[in-house]
Amino acid sequence: MGEGPLVLFLHGYPEFWWAWRHQLTAVADAGFRAAALDLRGSGASDKPPTGYDGWTAAADVSGVIRSLGVESAVVIGHGLGGFVAWSLPYLSPGVTRALASVGMPHPCVFRRQVARHLTRLASGSVFARGKWPWVPEREMTTDPTAVPRLLRHWSAPASSWPSAEEGERYAAALTIPFAAHAAADYHRWLVLSQVRREGWSYTRRMTGRVDLPVLQIRGDQDATVSGSAQGASVAYVGGESTTVVVTDAGHFPHEEAPARLNRHLLGWLDGLTSP
Fold it and tell me: For the residues of 145-177, what is the DSSP string, one character each?
């Protein structure tokens, strides 16, 4: 681990900290302190019965940053981890030096996307199962092909990722007792909070601008995050805003095209520490 600023990585669904293995070594070799955690309910983290909401996830990550002996960190998140990374400056001010989100627009933009699809569902239209990157928890734990199939579905069509080993690792991680249920609880909160007071309160907290450097990364073939969603998120950035599109990558550019993503990421990190 380097001696520079702390860079903390937050994984998405259905992954765990190992998803960032390519970035951890690259960032540490560049002189930064690099760390990745398992979000509450995932991998080796505790799996309490509650706390799978935006407020608690932000508090969890804030506590981890302080526990590592620093006041603030550069926070980089993918998918659900990106949702938490965006939330931190609003809910735990002062712990984030800069943030990068991979495959996740600003929470207000994302929540509008969810609301539109819930409206389509309520009106009788088909809520396409393949439109969102999650499937029922029972299937994820009983069908060993479910996780690899999901990962392949959300990667670029021509991608060779995931390998058999990678698919097996992520499938095994979701068979840890209560892990699949916890992952599903995060997504249940994202949906149910649309009509709950806590969700409205959360959205009101997210409406200001993030006065920090922000990097947004998406794969050009990511069906969950459009270029328009990435663009709409810029309106919520008060600091320096950088957007990157990784070609020939889907929802997981940090794994599908790690070398190319790392070049963008390291260039951005270097800019944060340059005079």
Answer: THHHHHHHHHS-TT--PSPHHHHHHHHHHHTST
Element (H, E) at 75: strand 73-78
Alpha carbon of 187 to those of 48, 146, 198: distances in Å? 16, 17, 15
Domain boundaries of the chain, sorted by first residue: 6-273
The CATH number of 6-273 is which of 2.60.120.200, 3.40.50.790, 3.40.50.1820, 3.40.250.10? Answer: 3.40.50.1820
Long-range contacts of the stretch 81-84 (C-beta < 8 A, 24+): 81/9, 81/10, 81/11, 81/12, 81/39, 82/10, 82/12, 83/54, 83/57, 83/107, 83/110, 83/190, 84/10, 84/39, 84/54, 84/57, 84/58
- Give the residue with greater pLDDT, 225 vs 134: 225
3-state secondary structure of 239: coil
pTM of the model: 0.93
Q: What are phi and psi of 104, to 5 degrees?
A: -155, 120
CA 249-133-253 angle, to 5 degrees, is 20
Rounded to whole angstroms, how far apart are CA atoms 154 and 162?
Answer: 10
Q: In degrees to the nearest 10, what's the CA dihedral of 241, 246, 252, 254?
A: -80
Question: Which pLDDT belongs to residue 64?
Answer: 97
